[in-house]
Amino acid sequence: MRPRKKTNLVPRLAACSPIIFQEPLSKKGQLMQEFPDPMAPLHLEIGCGKGQFIRQLAARHPDINFIAMEREPNVAVIATEHVLADGLDNVRFLLEDAEKLSELFEPEQLDQIYINFCDPWHKRRQYRRRLTYRVRLQLYQELLKPGGELHFKTDNYMLYHFSTAEFAAVMPAYFKTQDLHHSEYATENIMTEYETYFSNLGQPIYAIRAKK
């Protein structure tokens, strides 16, 4: 579903410009320089939505720098406003598509990547567009430092089933589950907006974690 256009989007984004990367494609490999502590570990969430996950994660880990990537500005503006209101100085926003990752980061630059409730692209012919397609997983693996981790969550069983095979071919998982909220990682889990909604409906949450 296409997000509704937000009122006064341009001035609202402008007000959040201090935490939004400006012209990021001209700063490949240098985005960490815009954080107060450029030497801190660097984590990336691909598709941050309204920012509930990244805000709570950043508040829990002030010693880590977080980049929230979101291609849809009508959604990202809500997340940026919340981060500013929370006073989090370890979060920056990247308003770009995941297709541009190789133009934004150098190999072995990221410590962790999160992919939460991405578009499942239901039609069989669309499999290359899924964020867990093996070619994309190969790229994530290149961008991660040795020992870096990729965490994936979804409410869609077919995407989870597809993803288990893709991970096995590229980046074998050390953890996978069809019920994250009743797993050993349930206590530390931070829920996204989608996750909260689907969990309240009784929908199990599927998850995969892998390490480079």
Let me know the average pLDDT.
96
User: What sequence of helices (H) and strands (E) makes up the elements?
Assistant: HEHEHEHEHEHEHE
- Biggest β-sheet, characterized? 7 strands, mixed
Distance between the termini: 34 Å
Q: Give the strand line-up of the largest sheet.
A: 3-2-1-4-5-7-6
What level of helicity do the residues show? 25-40%
Helix segment count?
7
Shape: globular
Tags for this entry?
alpha/beta; 20% strand; globular; 212 residues; seven-stranded mixed sheet
Give an account of the 3D structure:
This protein is 31% helix and 20% strand. It has a seven-stranded mixed sheet with strand order 3-2-1-4-5-7-6, sandwiched between helices. The protein has 212 residues and is an alpha/beta fold. The chain has seven helices and seven strands. The mean pLDDT is 96. Strand 2, helix 3 and strand 3 form a beta-alpha-beta unit. Helix 5 packs across helix 6.
Summarize the structure.
It is built from seven helices and seven strands; from the N terminus they run αβαβαβαβαβαβαβ.
SSE map:
Layout: H1 9-15, E1 42-46, H2 52-60, E2 65-69, H3 73-86, E3 91-94, H4 101-104, E4 110-116, H5 134-143, E5 144-154, H6 157-170, E6 173-177, H7 193-200, E7 206-211
Parallel strand pairs: 1-2, 1-4, 2-3, 4-5
Antiparallel strand pairs: 5-7, 6-7
